[in-house]
């Protein structure tokens, strides 16, 4: 849903009295949504964002007090607190219709928590899609000190390729959508595996009438002209490349194993991709830490217009992890304040000013991450099958492709069952949180282990909503 605006309507005493008499019965069956959030955008406009419906409402600043009073009064009335505000302001009919259109005001019969549960479980148990993260190798040509993976020189062998295809052909004939996310390690170290498996997967999808699509996450070093030209035939619709700041910072972190930097080649490959392929989305992920934060804006300035026109950019903090020895790369206190999201927001503002489009998955997601769906698996190069991409240790494996059709092991059925049945609706804090519709309870693995992983944006909601609004609206709408 796009932008809806309230038009300026003068609310004088005569109009108010007339509308109170005409609309007295209009709101009897209405209530305020529990998921509205408002920010003052500038001197002339407020914006409202609804976390459940992903809808946006622009309200002139001089009209906002009336809208706010109306919504508060309606909320009190729907909660049986009519004495608190027994005579709430009646709004112009076109305003009320606008509020209803964006679901800031809803029918009393709607149980929004039940609606969230419905969408959550419908998405989780939808059975028309197969989504696989395939790692053709766990090896990488770079030695990033923060990487969460334990690098192993393991490459997918032909027998694992055969076992993967056999498993898919026998177990997933009823699917209508098949998506493969090429991951690693560095997947482009195993291009032949990608080409071979793609051909067989495309043939399988054609035979059952399913749609096939793929994405690629790469460090960009081997994203050469020849591979770029093959992207359409590989059905790759999205490429994510990670950079670590401008040249000096990137080369200090994303070093080749011989100590040489990788910036120049990766940068040129990104430009070539944007110049050569028009129907493939480029996501540029920029990792942020104390060592490279102040140089990131220089990187954004360096790219030519063709990249800004074709790519979306997003920023993520570098986190300590087991594989990196729990080294801290960032105090996460950069930017305008002490909250981590504020530091990322500062970079987003700089990127927008330079003409970049910001990628914000929360405007569109239906799950916290890709593992929040039935029939999603990660396939290691040795044939081990995983539920989560956080680790590829054998102890986390739920099955093994080379063991035959019944990939999942009998002793992992309990884990698999719990994985797909754990949910946030038994968590008292989650069910009253306004962000539940977009975070979906956070990391499933953390919840499995008895924890809760609230998204960092929760601590900076004004900035978060501003980011969501600006990512959705064209510049002309922000005037």
TrEMBL record:
UniProt cofactor(s): [4Fe-4S] cluster
InterPro entries on file: 4Fe4S-binding_SPASM_dom, Aldolase_TIM, rSAM, rSAM_sf
GO molecular function, one term: catalytic activity
Keywords for this protein: 4Fe-4S, Iron, Iron-sulfur, Metal-binding, S-adenosyl-L-methionine
Pfam families linked to this entry: Radical_SAM (PF04055)
Domain Radical SAM core: 135-300
Name this polypeptide is given: Putative Radical SAM domain protein
Lineage: Archaea, Methanobacteriati, Methanobacteriota, Stenosarchaea group, Methanomicrobia
């Amino acid at each position: 849903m796009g932008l809806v605006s309230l038009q300026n309507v003068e609310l004088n005493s005569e109009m108010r009295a007339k509308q109170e008499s005409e609309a007295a019965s209009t709101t009897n069956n209405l209530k305020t949504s529990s998921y509205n959030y408002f920010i003052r955008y500038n001197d002339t406009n407020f914006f409202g964002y609804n976390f459940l419906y992903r809808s946006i409402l622009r309200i002139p600043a001089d009209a906002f007090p009336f809208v706010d009073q109306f919504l508060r009064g309606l909320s009190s009335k729907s909660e049986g607190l009519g004495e608190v505000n027994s005579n709430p302001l009646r709004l112009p009919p076109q305003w009320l219709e606008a509020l209803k259109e964006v679901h800031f005001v809803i029918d009393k019969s709607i149980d929004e928590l039940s609606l969230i549960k419905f969408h959550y479980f419908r998405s989780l148990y939808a059975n028309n899609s197969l989504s696989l993260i395939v790692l053709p190798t766990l090896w990488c040509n770079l030695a990033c000190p923060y990487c969460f993976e334990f690098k192993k020189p393991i490459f997918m062998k032909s027998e694992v390729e055969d076992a993967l295809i056999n498993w898919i052909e026998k177990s997933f004939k009823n699917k209508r959508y098949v998506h493969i996310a090429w991951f690693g390690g560095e997947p482009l170290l195993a291009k032949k595996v990608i080409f071979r498996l793609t051909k067989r997967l495309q043939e399988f999808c054609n035979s059952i009438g399913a749609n096939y699509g793929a994405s690629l996450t790469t460090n960009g070093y081997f994203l050469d002209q020849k591979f770029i030209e093959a992207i359409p035939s590989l059905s790759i619709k999205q490429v994510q490349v990670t950079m670590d700041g401008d040249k000096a910072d990137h080369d200090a972190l994303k070093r080749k194993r011989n100590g040489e930097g990788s910036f120049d080649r990766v940068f040129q490959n990104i430009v070539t991709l944007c110049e050569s392929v028009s129907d493939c989305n480029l996501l540029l992920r920029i990792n942020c830490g104390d060592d490279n934060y102040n140089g990131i804006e220089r990187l954004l300035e360096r790219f030519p217009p063709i990249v800004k026109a074709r790519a979306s950019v997003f920023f993520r903090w570098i986190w300590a992890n087991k594989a990196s020895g729990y080294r801290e790369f960032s105090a996460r206190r950069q930017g305008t304040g002490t909250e981590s999201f504020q530091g990322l927001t500062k970079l987003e503002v700089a990127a927008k000013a330079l003409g970049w489009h910001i990628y914000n998955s929360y405007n569109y997601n239906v799950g916290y991450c890709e593992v929040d769906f039935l029939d999603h698996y990660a396939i290691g190069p040795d044939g081990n099958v995983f539920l989560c991409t956080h680790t590829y240790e054998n102890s986390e494996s739920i099955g093994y492709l080379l063991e035959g059709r019944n990939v999942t092991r009998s002793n992992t059925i309990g884990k698999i069952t719990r994985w797909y049945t754990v949910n946030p609706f038994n968590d008292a804090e989650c069910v009253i949180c306004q962000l539940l519709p977009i975070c979906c309870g956070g990391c499933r693995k953390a919840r499995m282990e008895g924890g809760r992983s609230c998204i960092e944006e929760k601590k900076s909601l004004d900035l978060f909503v501003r980011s969501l609004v600006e990512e959705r609206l064209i510049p002309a709408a922000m005037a």
